[in-house]
Design goal:
Elements: E1 2-10, E2 14-21, E3 29-37, H1 45-60, E4 66-74, E5 81-86, H2 89-102, E6 106-112, H3 117-126, E7 130-133, H4 143-154, E8 161-163, H5 170-179, E9 186-188, H6 202-216, E10 233-235, H7 236-251, E11 254-259, E12 264-269, H8 274-277, E13 287-292, H9 301-308, H10 310-317, H11 321-329, H12 338-359, E14 362-366, E15 372-376, E16 385-389, H13 390-395, H14 399-408, E17 422-425, H15 431-437, H16 442-452
Parallel strand pairs: 1-4, 4-10, 5-6, 5-7, 7-8, 8-9, 11-16, 16-17
Antiparallel strand pairs: 1-2, 2-3, 11-12, 12-13, 14-15
Helix pairs in contact: 2-6, 4-5, 7-15, 7-16, 9-12, 10-11, 12-14, 15-16
């Protein structure tokens, strides 16, 4: 059987392959998927990728599999480890951080001002895949960006460096890297914060994903990936963001929530309301991602359970404390019994509520001669749709009710979606795959995404 496109999602623990056909027609189809454990430890992810393809052949009841294109997303090989270094945290550092997160990076270090010896020790321990240097509005402060560039160029780190700071020193930055023989490591992008209260992060996001694609095929265990994949490879969270952005253009402002085993990702794509824009302290990107590394329903389930309080959890679920503790210690990733599902649903609800509150901005009242209320952070009050993706929010029976809690629990002090925001579920669990498929055929990706979300029946 010859299939148009296969998209592999190579995770840290599991590899999933999704099959799509008719992508050049008016009626593209999602055929099915296969999965297998990721084989990074064996030194060759192709083993796990081939096993997932074999599983898909079994599910589709076919013996031979041919494909025109194979694309991929990946969070294997540690995902995309980045560090970000800027001038002032509330300005250039924040802008650079937004660019990195939106591209799907895992940020391991953020600094403002000149890098210290201790900073460099930490940087060497992290061994990032990419370093992002920012600093200064265009034709503003120069010294910090120049200093940080020289310290990094002079170090033993041999990794890609993206410079997205003051354009006035671009030629000087190039000379610095050339003098240390590292000119091939340097990637110049437009300033992420060119003017006060202006963000320009999309060009940086694109370069980060390009650099990631080259890195991931060179990482241990990933060297042979190109023998099967003949299209783009992007970070999995970046693919979800891409899907969210193209979906927003079709259905309006939205927020996508992905509760995973270890983390919870929130992707919002909204300009916010005019009412809030008028009192917003500082600019926010239209497309924003946050990742909560302490909120997950498998690896981090003990952490989430302790947030709720184990005694309260037992009472809510009508269980003994010992039962709750057994579920916390369990190594079963996918719940089968009704009680276990209820336990995971409660953890998922907590992860959703805590993460969306961390993602959203709020109001602050300042008292002086006359009190004044201003807004800060991301405004989600104009969001029309809340989209659930990921294992928990596409498979748990109470997934819709969990997402409805966002509007119900809004107290008015946070810039959260209102109760009028409607719920969509990525029923086929293919949002990340469609985010990378969009690079090949955007129209097909949109149609497949609307089908998975059952949008026509809303």
């Amino acid at each position: 059987m010859k299939i148009d496109v296969l998209v592999a999602e190579i995770g840290s623990t599991t590899t999933v392959v999704n099959a799509f056909d008719g992508v050049e027609t008016e009626n593209p189809k999602f055929l099915g998927q296969g999965q297998a454990p990721t084989s990074v430890k064996e030194g060759d992810v192709n083993i796990g990728l081939q096993a997932a393809m074999d599983d898909m052949k079994k599910n589709l009841q076919i013996e031979e599999l041919e494909y025109r294109h194979m694309l991929a997303t990946s969070s294997a090989a540690g995902g995309l480890r980045m560090t970000v270094h800027g001038l002032v945290y509330d300005m250039t550092v924040k802008a650079a951080r937004e660019a990195a997160l939106g591209a799907g990076a895992n940020i391991h270090m953020v600094t403002s001002g000149k890098l210290t010896k201790v900073d460099m020790i930490k940087l060497n321990k992290i061994q990032p895949n990419i370093i992002l240097i920012a600093g200064g509005v265009d034709y503003g402060e120069k010294e910090t960006a120049l200093y940080n560039s020289e310290v990094i160029a002079a170090s033993d780190l041999d990794v890609p460096v993206i410079y997205g700071g003051n354009t006035a020193v671009v030629e000087d930055i190039k000379l610095i890297f050339e003098s240390y023989g590292k000119e091939k490591n340097l990637h110049i992008v437009p300033n992420v914060y060119p003017k006060i209260d202006v963000l320009n992060i999309e060009p940086t996001r694109e370069v980060i994903q390009d650099v990631f694609e080259k890195h991931i095929t060179e990482a241990k265990g990933m060297e042979k990936i190109r023998s099967l994949v003949n299209g783009p490879i992007i970070p999995t969270p970046g693919a979800v963001m891409n899907a969210s952005k193209i979906l927003k253009d079709v259905i309006g402002d939205l927020v996508t929530i992905d509760v995973g085993g270890a983390t919870t990702d929130i992707h919002s794509v909204t300009e916010g309301t005019e009412k809030v824009k008028r009192i917003l302290i500082e600019p926010e990107p239209v497309a924003k991602r946050t990742v909560e590394g302490d909120l997950g329903v498998f690896v981090n389930k003990k952490n989430v359970a302790e947030m709720i309080k184990i005694e309260k959890l037992a009472k809510e679920l009508d269980m003994d404390i010992k039962e709750v503790e057994n579920y916390i210690e369990s190594d079963i990733a996918i719940p089968v019994t009704e009680k276990h599902k209820k336990f995971i649903e409660r953890l998922t609800k907590e992860a959703v509520i805590v993460s969306i509150n961390r993602h959203a901005g709020g109001y602050r009242t300042y008292f002086g001669g006359k009190s004044k209320t201003l807004a800060f952070g991301k405004d989600l009050t104009g969001v029309k749709w809340i989209v659930g993706t990921g294992g928990a929010l596409t498979r748990l029976p109470a997934r819709v009710e969990i997402l409805k809690e966002i509007g119900i629990q809004s107290k008015g002090d946070k810039l959260l979606p209102t109760p009028e925001a409607r719920i969509l579920i990525d029923n086929d669990y293919i949002m990340a795959s469609l985010g990378v498929l969009a690079s090949l055929n955007k129209e097909a990706s949109i149609k497949l995404l609307l089908k998975s979300l059952n949008y026509e029946n809303q």
